[in-house]
Design brief:
Strand order of the largest sheet: 3-2-1-4-5-6-7
Shape: elongated
Distance between the termini: 59 Å
CATH topology of the largest domain: Rossmann fold
Oligomer: single chain
Largest sheet: 7 strands, mixed
Strand content: 15-25%
Number of domains: 2
Helix content: 25-40%
């Protein structure tokens, strides 16, 4: 079977590595241009194995289809794709295209599915391998895998510790099903569908008056990117690592009520937030203790408007 892999970043590299370990015939790799001019791990791996690598600005560029057709693939595998792949590329291979998505479709369609599962306070999510069509994550399903969202999981830990490794395995499992002729096409239940926009800084501003659990979920879901933001002395302050404190404080939401070796506690609605790592405006991410020492933050100060 002639396979074209479309992907990027560490996930695309690990999928390529897994395919090669199974002696699959990868005849071409498509990945984004290297922004710094330094080859990605995916590109370096493909080059080392003599696999042609193509890095178009956009998959919809007219010359991409001409290159793609010359590869004569039987199957496309899409592993972490943020670009829009034209329908004629999706449908060209004899066996069409399969794609990885980090949610239990049809829930959390869109480009930041992991973020929103955590921000919404959900306790489980998963991944889907599906047959993509021209909709946004709307094609029929081959298989799904479920994982728990731990109370202190962030988008980073949930992805790298759970959905990333399980996703590589799931792609290989789906590939075997296709080779055996047993891969289903399970229609998604549109009545259960949800779609969220990209999780941007504008959507991750902390409202300290909201329930403390919701604030904690927002911080977790925005970690490591884009970061949940508030203000301190009129300057933006992003908050990353945090813990929920199940104690109600007689203080205004957003008020600093305690400072300890781990960081500082901010009063919320029905609880508190222990802030452990922050990023001040124009600076790098630092431990909260370093920020306290540099900024002079003290008990009684207030975050937010």
């Amino acid at each position: 079977m002639r396979i074209v892999l479309i992907g990027q970043a560490a996930f695309g590299e690990k999928v390529l590595e897994a395919l090669l370990s199974k002696n699959e015939n990868v005849v071409g790799v498509f990945c984004p241009p290297d922004p710094s001019g330094k080859p990605s791990g995916m590109k370096k791996l493909a080059d080392s194995k003599g696999i042609p690598v193509y890095q178009p600005d956009k998959m919809k560029d007219p010359h991409v289809y001409d290159i793609f057709v010359q590869l004569q693939p039987d199957l496309n595998i899409m592993a972490f794709v943020t670009d829009i792949v034209p329908k004629r590329i999706l449908d060209y291979p004899r066996l069409k295209t399969i794609q990885y998505h980090p949610s239990l479709l049809p829930k959390h369609r869109g480009g930041t599915a992991i973020h929103w599962a955590i921000i919404n306070g959900e306790t489980k999510t998963g991944l889907t391998i599906f047959w993509p069509d021209q909709g946004i994550d709307t094609g029929p399903i081959i298989l799904q895998k479920e994982v728990e969202i731990s109370p202190d999981d962030t988008t980073g830990t949930l992805y790298y510790n759970k959905l990333f490794p399980l996703g590589v395995e799931a792609i290989l499992e789906a590939l075997e099903m296709i080779k055996n002729g047993t891969a289903p096409r399970i229609k998604q239940d549109e009545s259960q569908a949800t779609y969220e926009p990209l999780c941007t800084e504008e959507l991750t501003v902390i409202n300290w008056s909201k329930p403390a659990q919701q604030v904690h979920n927002l911080i977790r879901g925005a970690n490591p990117s884009p970061g949940a933001s508030t203000t301190y002395k009129g300057e933006k302050l992003k908050i990353f690592d945090s813990s929920l404190i199940q104690t109600s404080y007689d203080a205004i939401p957003g008020e600093i009520v305690s400072i300890n070796d781990e960081g500082f506690i901010v009063a919320g609605n029905g609880g508190g937030i222990l802030v452990k790592r922050v990023q001040p405006a124009g600076g790098s991410k630092v431990k909260a203790s370093e920020f306290i020492a540099a900024s002079g933050l003290k008990v009684g100060d207030r975050l937010g408007a």
